[in-house]
Amino acid sequence: MRAIDTHVHPGTREDVIDTGGKYIEHAASYFGLKMEILSEEALADRYRKLDLMGVLLAWDAETNTGLPRLSNEYVARLAAKYPDTFIGFGSVDPWKGQIAVKEAEHAVRDLGLRGIKFQQASQAFFPDDRRFYPLWETIAGLGVPVLFHTGTTGYGAGVPGGDGIRLKYTRPIPHLDDLAADMPGLTIICAHPSWPWQDEMLAVAMHKANVYIDLSGWSPKYFPPLLVQYANSFLQDKCLFGSDHPYIKPDRWLSDFDKLPLKPEVKEKILLGNAKRLLKI
Ligand SMILES: [Zn+2]
């Protein structure tokens, strides 16, 4: 295995069409991409050919969007079908309260999922909202990480009113910094270069030992210089390769990453070592 892609949306019919398609269309046009629909076999092939392992992500924003979820069962089924190629992160909708707590337990204990992903922009919640602390305590107790979206999003991008999506939910300080402070036992991965709050994200990851950054959703060619500098030094044990497939393809991310002026041992950590340690692979 050459690397672990920690941020993979399947891009299959279940992901692209059955979830209502709306946000995926926004995101595809934001990324300047014509959305294709992959068969499960084509998805697995894409990762196998590159000698990568991928972390598939579920999505549940039913309360805020009224759209069907990409279920934990589906992601678990794909991971079980291609055990050498994929593992999965579940998703729960925090507004479902006790049901979300039970679903997180079910996802990890029964389905074997290895983390829980949140997309606060579409789920419309602040991670430091006290009402959700029982959920974070449960996930910390399950011993798996949480993955939060940070910074702007393709969902609602370019649509009048951003289709009701509010970026405030995705800001690192105070929301993720407060959560990390209140829950030192919870491992928090923050996705994407957190534009327009990149510096805040670097500060939180430097300050809180339980906070990590996944570098998905941007081609490394466009990483801000400060992110590259920190990834190469202070944060070399805390940055993870993620593509945000299918919006950024892993082969493109990897070839652009290869051109960054990073130390070879740092590249190895970001591509493989850090994720192995964090995900216990
Ligand atoms: Zn994503």
Summarize the structure.
42% of the residues lie in helices and 12% in strands.
Task: Give your account of this protein's structure.
The structure is a single chain. With 281 residues, the protein is of the alpha/beta class. The protein has a single domain (3-279), classed as Metal-dependent hydrolases (TIM Barrel). The chain is built from 13 helices and eight strands. The chain has helices at 13-16, 22-30, 40-49, 62-65, 72-81, 98-110, 120-123, 133-142, 172-182, 198-207, 225-231, 250-258, 264-279; strands at 3-8, 52-57, 86-91, 116-118, 146-149, 188-191, 211-214, 239-240. The protein has an eight-stranded parallel sheet with strand order 1-2-3-4-5-6-7-8. α11 links the parallel β7 (211-214) and β8 (239-240). The longest helix is centred in the last third of the chain and has 16 residues, at 264-279. The chain is globular and about 45 Å long. The mean pLDDT is 97.
